[in-house]
Amino acid sequence: MTTNNLFALLALIGLTITAYLYWPFSQSAEATIKNATDKIIAVRLESDSGTLYPVSTVVAGASAQIPLTGKDHTIWAIALYADGQSKESAKIPTVKGALSVMVSNSGIDIGYK
Question: What CATH number should be reported for the domain whose range is 28-112?
């Protein structure tokens, strides 16, 4: 086996391992969090697998996007308001697609587009 063939074989093995390790991230969905309140809020997504997806703050009338791993079975949102209260959304099963979270003064709506 020549040096060029050995290099090509090692490069192919390296690319195969890299593709295998990063495949779940390429299959992941994305969550869009919209703040429909007139206050700054902090929102985090939690899943049954123990994964936390934090968003530090979302200003009033704005939105934020978070990549999801795609390994979760159930997901829900928790919003922390500036006055100290918190609200939790319903727990929904995960499906492929874009997750939408709308936080308002009355509660949290969570679903898929």
Answer: 2.60.40.2890
